[in-house]
Amino acid sequence: MFTSRLKVTLSLVLAVLAIFMLPATTFSESSFAATCVSKACINVFTQDGQIVIEGKRGADRVKNPTPSLKPLPKKTTATKPMPVTPQPKSTYVKPWVPYKHKLTPIVKKRTTRSSSLNDRLVKLLPIGKIAYQPARSALIKVPMIFWCDLPSLFSTKVSIVGEVIDVAMRPAFVWSFGDGGFYVTTSSGAPYPKGGISHTYRNPGQYVVILIATWGGTWTFDGASRAITGEIRQTSISRVTVSRAPTVITR
């Protein structure tokens, strides 16, 4: 009796250990973010620097159409047959008339293609360019103003498989000014007098300015908002020349 209980206990322990030793289930990028309702399955993610929207008709629309109600059979009441009196046979013969065959025209039925059950759309984000002031004759120890022409919000409305999807993306910026200085912000900046992003160079020379914009956002479907899987990074590069201030000789 004790040996049998020990065997059962050992088998349960080994089963639990085997479950924990199984590799974790991994989901693909598209399957993990998919959201399915009775109307459709929608998935929004990023791929190769683009926003990808995938849609598939729901099973309720394709496999389970609304059944049509059949009318109930009408109740009939049995009636007694009427007595039939025999009629005398007639000797009249109907004259023969040749039969005229009527030709019925052949009408071709029109066939309409059904809409696709699956669909895939791709949306591109705007690419920003670096701008700065002063555009020429930049001087050391004088702040330079930087900005880019990217919007602070990119929103679009997409119609796919009969459903409307709202997509909203916002960028975050990392500026590298080429002399070791960095600046992180969520603002795209603006020219003078608003400004917002500035940098001061201490030594003359040519500097490579790099702007990295990282996009992330949400998508809304069926009244619920969800995060877009993945992110999109865009890189913009510009070169600025900084000169030494002219020497002014005073007496």
Would you give an account of this structure?
Strands 6, 8, 9, 10, 12, 13 and 14 form a seven-stranded mixed beta sheet that branches. The protein has a four-stranded antiparallel beta sheet with strand order 1-2-3-4. The chain has 251 residues and is mainly beta. The termini are far apart. The chain has a domain of 118 residues: Sandwich (Immunoglobulin-like), CATH 2.60.40. The chain is rod-shaped, with a radius of gyration of 39 Å. The chain contains three helices and 14 strands.
CATH class placement of the domain at 126-243: Mainly Beta
Overall number of strands:
14
Structural class: mainly beta
Write down the overall geometry. rod-shaped
Question: Summed up, what is this model?
Answer:
11% of the residues lie in helices and 38% in strands. It has 251 residues and is mainly beta. Strand 9 (163-176) and strand 10 form a beta hairpin.
Write the layout of secondary structure elements.
Blueprint (H helix, E strand, L loop, with lengths): L1 H20 L7 H4 L2 E2 L3 E8 L2 E8 L1 H4 L55 E6 L6 E4 L4 E2 L4 E5 L5 E7 L2 E14 L5 E4 L12 E2 L5 E17 L2 E4 L4 E12 L8
Parallel strand pairs: 6-14
Antiparallel strand pairs: 1-2, 2-3, 3-4, 5-7, 7-11, 8-9, 9-10, 9-12, 12-13, 12-14
